[in-house]
TrEMBL record:
Transmembrane segments: none annotated. This is Lipid-A-disaccharide synthase. SUPFAM superfamilies: UDP-Glycosyltransferase/glycogen phosphorylase. GO terms for cellular component: membrane.
Amino acid sequence: MNLKPLTILFSAGESSGDQHAANMFLELQKQRPDIKGLGMGGAKMAQAGIDIRYDSANISVIGVVEVIKHYAEIRRALTLMQELVATERPDLLVCVDYKEFNFKLARYAKQQGIKVLFYVSPQVWAWRPGRVKAYGKVIDMMAVIFPFETAYYDAEKVPVRYVGHPSVDKVHARYSKDEDLSRFGLDKNKPIVGLLPGSRANEIKRLLPVMLAAAEKVQANLPECQFILPQADSISDALLDDYLRQSPLSVSVIKNQPYDVIQCCDAVMTTSGTATLEIALLTVPMVIAYKLSSITYWLGKWLINTPFIGLPNIVLGKSIVKELIQQEATAENLSEEITRILTDQAYADNMHQNLSQVKQQLGQGGGSKNMALLALEMLST
């Protein structure tokens, strides 16, 4: 039986979405080798064989002020994606995260009679739960990555499927910890601290200087401490070098091996976001730092109705990892928490235990495969 070649249009605006879409497409190819993928994304999607028509690195920004600054470019990307919907007439549009942009794109696709699968729900449990109804009008299916999210969609009779968190499958080191310590030139008898300032340029600008200053303070207390930084694909060498050159610290920068880097660490300073969940899955104690422009922060504080921003804390519904937000994200506070993790064994053990519970809550994984099967199910109806 000859099946008609299928075309899926992907829209991913950030580093994590790029990875999720790539993994999903690789699973789709196992089921339907002739499947064609195109759209907006980054390096991971391109490597998976998706035809990238717009590089999302140009619009990977967060916060109200940053979005306003990049508005013209974001608008251009949206117009281009809408044109692809109209000219390519894909069998399915898969919107991955990047909420506001993808909401507009989904609405346009729906008007054009194209089926829409939205992957990674907006955080309706944190703010604007009324969005569930709005999304219900522009999508055919919402694929959620946390088990507790389905209830919000079920309540409004919006088609929803829990597919599992994609990080569960992908967060695995390629080598053993001992092999990695040797490969990265680290001494296992001395404390190792990871710096994860983020995958966006504006996160690096806001957080890396603070993290480096905190690391200096940690080293003053614990002179043997070693520092390592896993470089995100979306961050240029030049941007990192600007900050690292100004620091007296020796920081090992490792590309394309985040999980191998994290598993070597005794403690990690990280920005908020998916990284916190990945660190939790590797059960490494951490402190979360988060800084936005003042306007974005105060708007968020006014709109957001959740006691936590860190995903490990949200998943367990309690504070298991310290969150240092805005003016609290200082070098002093970060260094104090990292030093405590490194020197107070009972404290570190308790955090480790709680992070193991986060891992348990997220289950067995299979998210990318479940997404591929869900897409094929939608294409066959």
